[in-house]
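Technical note accompanying the year-one report. For the benefit of new consortium partners, we illustrate the data format agreed upon in the data management plan: each record pairs a sequence with a structure-token string. No post-processing was applied to the example shown here.
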Amino acid sequence: MEFLEAINDFLHFCSINEGKAKNTVDAYRRDLTDYRLFMHQKNRELNQITHQDLIEWISYSKTLKKPTSVNRMVSSMTGFHRYLYSQYKISDPTVKLSVSRSKNPLPKTLNRLDVNRLLQSFPSTPIGEYQRTICEMLFSTGLRVSELCGLQFQQVYLEEGILRIIGKGDKERIVPIGKSALSAYRNYIQNIRPHWVKKGKSAVFIGPNGKQLSRQYVWAMLKYKSQELGFEPNISPHTLRHSFASALLEGGADLRIIQELLGHSDISTTQIYTHIETSRLHKNYDEFHPGRLLDKENEDE
């Protein structure tokens, strides 16, 4: 079997049989394309790849990619070879592969003061209100940016104040909308969107040009705001999603409820937010607890 044919076969399986989201399949495609090019340079066919080849590819990837990206690439490659072995009995060089996964850093979150700074920084203009609504919705609902960009009117239940979201793997979940976000949303729908809409557009969020909101627009807008407000590192759409989850946990919400609202299939994915709160507790203790202050005084003596 040719390398490219095998990749396409695996991606088709992930998409159709396993119901993986398009963004996930696209990430697999990029990872495996890089993997194929590396093996091509070594003149390796699929059934010729060795354990040592994998080690070299991983080492090479670490010089170019962030630890989180390398973790995903290794996962993509491992799943690819396991699939080929199970379907076509092509030898699996990952059998004896033991890679210490790089520890993922805790996701960046904004505290409530910084969220308010962000929301209040937008001017009272159509573009400013539009951008503020985007941020209000991301923080209030914890949506993925792709879910917000693709939001359709039939998914919005204004009277009930909820969204019906179809997330990764076509899993459906119900997400409440906070009062502030709902107010901003109503203002956008009634006073801004009608001036921009073009015939046939069913997406909720469209720009002044009448085109559907893109992920790139939201990323660029938040990068600009980060520089304006002095947020380091730059915040992203996922920062607001993380901040949503962290705020719920800080307020006493059950981890299972947060898992449901975020659309996580595995509770272990949601548990990262408990580490954030533990880190925050330690920081507050170090700054304000009398016992810690006494420790500092003793160190200075």
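Partners are asked to follow this layout when depositing records. The first strand starts at residue 156 and ends at 157.
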